[in-house]
Amino acid sequence: MRRVAIALVHYPVLDGQGAVVTTAVTNLDVHDLSRSARTFGCTDYFVTHPIAAQRELCERILAHWTDGSSGRRIPDRREALTVLRVVESLDAAIDALGGRAVVEVWLTAARALGNTLTFAEARSRVEGEGSTILVVFGTGWGLASSVLAGGDALLEPIVAARGDYNHLSVRSACAIVLDRLLGAR
Amino acid sequence: MRRVAIALVHYPVLDGQGAVVTTAVTNLDVHDLSRSARTFGCTDYFVTHPIAAQRELCERILAHWTDGSSGRRIPDRREALTVLRVVESLDAAIDALGGRAVVEVWLTAARALGNTLTFAEARSRVEGEGSTILVVFGTGWGLASSVLAGGDALLEPIVAARGDYNHLSVRSACAIVLDRLLGAR
Predict the structure, then answer these.
(1) Model confidence over A53-107: pLDDT tens digits?
(2) B20 with B142: CB under 8 angstroms?
(3) What is the C-alpha to C-alpha distance for residues B17 and B156, in angstroms, rounded to an integer?
(4) Where are the alpha helices (DSSP H) in A8-118?
(5) SS3 at position A39
(6) Out of B16, B79, B175, whose CB is closest to A175?
C-alpha cells in the first residue's frame, strides 16, 4: 500500500465568480481534515497558506490542541492533529514529501474537467506499490486552473446516485474521497 | 428507491466521560449536513434540539441563507438549506415524516455496539421499495443508549482499510454514510 498525504489549498483558488483569490483559514477545516486524514491512515495533512499570519493562526490552533488545555481534555483530537503540517504553498508540501519527482499529485474538483481518474482505478493504485500520493483539495470554489494544470491526475467528481446537485463542503468532500480510496470494503 | 432523511441529535448524547448531555449547535453542522443531504438526494435534514433558543439560532441561520444577503450571494447554499427542518426532538422528526409506524430508524455509532447493518445490505435496502428511512447521527461523543435502544437498525461503524483509529467529525461521518448509501457506483 502506498503512502497517502492530503493538502488543503487556500491560494490559488476560485471565488464564486471564477476569480483567483486567497481564502481565509476555517478552524473546522483544520480539525475535520486532520481527523479524516488520521482515521484513514494518511501520513500528513498539509494546510497551505501564503500569508504568514494565517499560518501562525493554524500553528496556534495546533498548539492549543497538542500542548494546550484542549489536548489534555480530548486526547483523540491531539492524536488527529499529529498529521497536521502548516506550509506556505503546495510546492512546499510536495518538497516536504521529497520533491516533485517522487510525489504523485492527484487533484480534486467538483465538476468533471477533462479526463479523470475513476475512484475504482485510484483505489487500486493506492493499494499497489509506488511513490507517495498527495491528494489536493481546494477551498472556496475550488482549485485554480494553474494548479489543475500541474497534477498527475484529476479524480472524478463525487456524484450522487440520484440528482445532479453537488455542493458539498470541502470537509465532506475530503472525507468521502478518503473513504473511497482508503475505507475498508 | 426509498425516501431517505437524516437527523442530527443534540440531546440525549454522550460527553467524553459517557454522561448524557445536551450539546450546543455548531454552525457548520447546519451547513455541511444540509449540503450533504441535498447533494445525495435526502428529502429532509432534521436538526433536533430541546432548547428553544438553540432552535431559534438555527432558524436565524436558515433565514440568513434563504431570505437574507448570503442567500443572494450563494444561491447553491440557499438550495442546500431547503432540506433543513428544525425540531424539538427525534420523535418530532419521526412525526414530521408520518409517525413511527411508517419510518424506519437507522442509527449510527463510531463503534460496533452489537448487531449492525452492513453498508452493502443497507444500500440494497435503500435501492429497494419500502417506507421512509431516517438516518440518525449524534453530536458530542455519540447517541445515548436510550436512543440506540429505539431504532430499527444500527449501521456498521465506518472503518479504514489500515489502522484502528476512528475520530471522524459528525460532518465527515454523515458525508461518508450518505455516500456509501446514496453515492453513484
Answers:
(1) 999 999 999 999 988 888 888 888 999 999 999 999 999 999 999 999 999 999 9
(2) no
(3) 23
(4) 27-39, 52-66, 69-73, 75-81, 90-96
(5) helix
(6) B175
Q: Which three cell numbers stand for residue B156?
A: 456498521
Q: How distant, in Å, are the alpha carbons of A35, B14, B92 from that of A136? A: 16, 34, 41
Quick one: closest CA in B to A32, which residue?
Answer: B169
- At B144 the three-state DSSP class reads coil
pTM of the model: 0.97
How far is Cα B144 from Cα B5, in angstroms, rounded to an integer?
A: 20
User: Comparing C-alpha atoms, which of B41, B25, B6, B32 is closest to residue B183?
Assistant: B41
Q: What is the DSSP letter of B111?
A: S
Q: Does A111 touch chain B (CB under 8 A)?
A: no
Q: A32 in helix, strand or coil? A: helix
Q: pLDDT, tens digit, for every residue of B80-119?
A: 999 999 999 999 999 999 999 999 999 999 988 888 999 9
Question: In A, which residues are within 8 Å of B184 by CB distance?
Answer: 159-161
Count of C-beta atoms within a 10 Å radius of residue B24: 11
- Cβ of residue A164 closer than 8 Å to a chain B Cβ: no
Handedness of CA B107, B153, B147, B60 (dihedral sign): positive
Strands B13-14, B20-21: pairing kind: antiparallel
C-alpha cell at B97: 415524516
A74 touches chain B (CB under 8 A): yes
Any CB–CB contact under 8 A between A113 and chain B? no
State residue A60 phi and psi, 5-degree precision: -70, -40
Angle between helices B119-127 and B170-182 (to 10 degrees): 60
Q: What is the C-alpha separation between A183 and B152, in angstroms, rounded?
A: 25
Enumerate helices (H) and strands (E) in chain B, giving the number of each: 8, 8
B117 half-sphere exposure, CB direction, 13 A CA radius: 22
**What's the one-letter identity of residue B125?**
R
Residue whose cell numbers read 492530503: A6
Query: Does B168 contact A74 at a Cβ distance shorter than 8 Å?
Result: no
Residue A92 grid cell: 512546499
